[in-house]
Structure formats: C-alpha cells, structure tokens
Amino acid sequence: MSNATIRLEIPHHLRTLAQVNGEVTLKVPTPVTLRRVLDVLETRYPVLRGTIRDHGTLQRRPFLRFFACSEDLSHNSPDDLLPQAVADGREPLLIVGAIAGGTGRLASRGARRARDSSFVRRRGD
Amino acid sequence: MSKVRVLAGTRKGAFILTADGKRDTWDVSGPFFAGWEIYHMKGSPVNPDRIYVSQTSGWFGQIIQCSDDGGKSWYAPGGGLQKSPQGWPSGESNRFVYDAAAAPLTTHQWYDGTQHPWEFKRVWHLEPSLTDAEAVYAGVEDAAIFHSKDGAHSWQELPGLRGHGTGPAWQPGAGGMCLHTIVLDPKDANRIYIAISAAGAFRSDDGGQSWKPINKGLRSQFLPDQDTEVGHCVHHIAMSPRRPGVLFMQKHWDVMRSDDAGDNWREVSGNLPTDFGFAIDVHAHEPETIYVAPIKSDSEHFPLDGKLQVWRSKTGGNEWEALTNGLPQKDCYVNVLRDAMAIDTLDDCGVYFGTTGGQVYVSPNGGDTWKPIVSHLPPVLSVEVQTIA
After folding, report:
1. CA triple B328-B333-B335, angle to 5 deg
2. Where are the domains of chain A?
3. Chain A partners of B89 at a C-beta cutoff of 8 Å?
4. Alpha-carbon gap, residue A100 to B384, rounded angstroms
5. pTM recorded for the entire structure
6. Under CATH, which number does the domain A3-116 receive?
7. CB < 8 Å from B in window 67-96 of A
8. pLDDT for B243-273, tens place per residue?
C-alpha cells in the first residue's frame, strides 16, 4: 500500500488545538477515503479526536461539513473515494464549521472557500 | 502574604484574576481558549497549580484542559504532539463514553414527554478530589458522573447513578439534562452529593458506586406528585466543609436546607424578595452564614426591579438581609448562573460572583461591600476562587 500526500484545511479552533498554521499535510494510505484521512489526522494530532467525529460512533459532528473540489461530501460514506484532485494533492479537503451569512473578512481561508462554493452560496452573503 | 486566584469561565474563553490578600488591586489574564465556552474550571485543593478546565463548543464538542502552573500554560491531557516509544498519545481526555455494559444505555424523558436516548453533550462541572491531585470528577450532560484517576487523561463513568432505576423519569431543564453540582464530603471520602436538572439531588455513601435520591421535602408546583422521588429542578447545592451534612440548596424556586445529609429538606426562603435563583454558597468560617443571588422569576432571569443584590442569612436561612453596597441598584438586567458564586478562605472571607453581563464582583468583607474586578467579560458561566498561601 502506498501513501498519498493530502492537503487538509481545518477550522481555526481546531488549528489552535492542534497548534498548526495553515494547511495540514498528511501522508494517507491509498486509496484515499475520508475515513483514512481522519484516521491519520487523529493519530498525528490526538487532541483532535472527538472534535470532528464522535469518539464512539465515528459519526460526523452535526455542525461540521466536508468539502472538496466544490462538492459537499458531508453525506457521503466515509469509505467513498475522495476526488482524484484531493488524492493527488492538487486540491485540499476542507473541514468547515457551519456558517451563516457575513462577508467573513477574518474568516479562515477554508471557510471562505467553502462559502464561495456553489453548494453553500446564499443570496445576500 | 496569601493571595487569591479567581477562575472565571465565560462563553468566549477563560480568564484568571489574581490579587493579594487585600483583594483591592487585580491582575487579569486571558482569554485562554478564546472563542470556546468554558463551562467550569477548578483547581485541585491538593495542588493549587493543577487546574482542570471544561472547554466546549457546539461545533467541536468537549475538550478537557489542564494547567500545572496555576494557569500560565495549558495542555490537553494525552493530546501531546510528540510520539513516544510507546506510540502516539491516546488523546482520550475528552472521551466520555457511558458504561453501557454496567448500566444499559436506556432513555430519559424528553421535553415532549417521550423517551429519549442518553447522549453525551458536554461537561458542566469538574470537581477535583480533596486528597489526590490526579483524581477528578466530572458532571456531564446528559446527566451522569465520570471519574478520572490519571489527571484527566481518561474517564470512566460511575454507572450506578445513571443506572438508578429512576432514570426514565429524569428530564432536561431549560439548559439541558445536566449534572451540574458535585459536592465532596471532607470528613467521609465515600460520601458524594450531586444534583441534576431536572431530576433532583442524589447521594452516594460508597464512593459513587450506588446512589439514592435525596429529595424528601422538596416541593415543585410543576410536578403532579409533590412527593415524587425525582423530577425536581435543583439548581445548586452548597455545604460548609466545616460542617458536612448540613446542606443548602437553591432550587428552581425555594431556598432549602437539610441538617441530615439531604435525607430531609425544609424551606428557608424566609423574607427573600424572590426565592428563584441559581447560585448559593456558604461562608468559609461561619457555617450558618449563606449567600444567594435572587432572580426575579423563572420567566425573567434578571434581578428584581433591575437591582443587583446578594442576600445573606447569618441564621442558616429564613432571616435574610440585602447586600447592595457597591452593586448596581438600577437598570441591571443580568443573571447569576449556578456555578458563578464562590467563597475564599481568608480570615476576612471573600465572596465572588459573576454575571451574564460580564462582570465579576468581589466582596473582601463577607458581603458588606462590593466592587467589580472586571466589567466587560463575555457572559460569565462559572467562578471559582483559590486561596493560595
């Protein structure tokens, strides 16, 4: 099994917890799935366990969403393959806290990207 | 010279307020964990520099933080960034999993009267052991009590409480079905008191293995059966360490007293202008001197007539006096939450409370006069104070 280099953007508060700046780069076993990305992330940053998905059920926390390549992946199976552009490291996987409105001048780059995607753009934002 | 360290948990972070024994000039540090809700923070009586913090978020769930240097630096137990020869840290300090093997994960009453499964949401209260700095209890929503013996690295439920046969009758209060109060008996290591909104008060006499409801004498108009074993909305319980077994309770409505470790309660609201409220505490050296912060009603969570007042009884209840010197007496519409009052142990006992308006007040003379330590914090959820020699 080989590893792919994945780019991941996580919300501000989780970056603070994990003491990281900007994107997180992870070596993830192929084929790349959301479950594998999160498994690697939580191994590398144990403090993030339970903050993105429930400790016991591994269900996504309700107010977090997963985006990549302008697609909302939040309701996909965690065992689905992520888009090839993510697996290739050309596009980041975005983990985004639920947001509503605002211009977000100080919002994280990931949040802005997600908001700007066609899946979450709202009139008046 | 002694000093005091006030630990203030707010909706948007933690703050530490320090002063010498005069309690006149204060240093303010924080916010720590900025942007997170800090439901509670409390220092170990054994090692005051060990502070436990409940850090929560509707987005990211529960985090437990610790300090070993009195709040100068913090860490999430077991969440380090370095790989040791034993492997990566477990990162399980925020893992609160109900012990379904010991007590089936049943249901409790939901707001609409239907049954609803137990679901962990957050830690409301952390109560460090009186004898071991590495041991700490956690009161959580949905109501249960957890225990850590390893400095909050890992948690185990004490399932005898949730497994108590009355569980299906427990119901959430407006803030959720939370275990918000834990009182440890300094003279009997096996005796623990807890309170749940809205189930009532419980006591364990065997170190948390088994529990009994202690709600006899409580009266709640919203309950069809006034003698029900559980269902009362207890807001907080306080006890003087000098006199374990005598308990004071701020119930939803009513201030109550028990002289037999909770077996029987009687109302001591006396001449209070309103006996609704959340916070209650006992003087450090005078076990019959108690403090409450009356709130207008369960529908209007602010002081009566816009006057912020602490009321003190020096007779163990029934006879109360308003303490107003230094507190705003007009246009004040804040609330004082259940864990937002604390008492220091200096000879001239200090009393502290925080408000949802972001003020933390101190009285360095047992309530006679007050002054704000800070006035513009986020809404204050909890206040604890450490008296440090």
Report:
1. 100
2. 3-116
3. 46
4. 35
5. 0.93
6. 3.10.20.30
7. none
8. 999 999 999 999 999 999 999 999 999 999 9
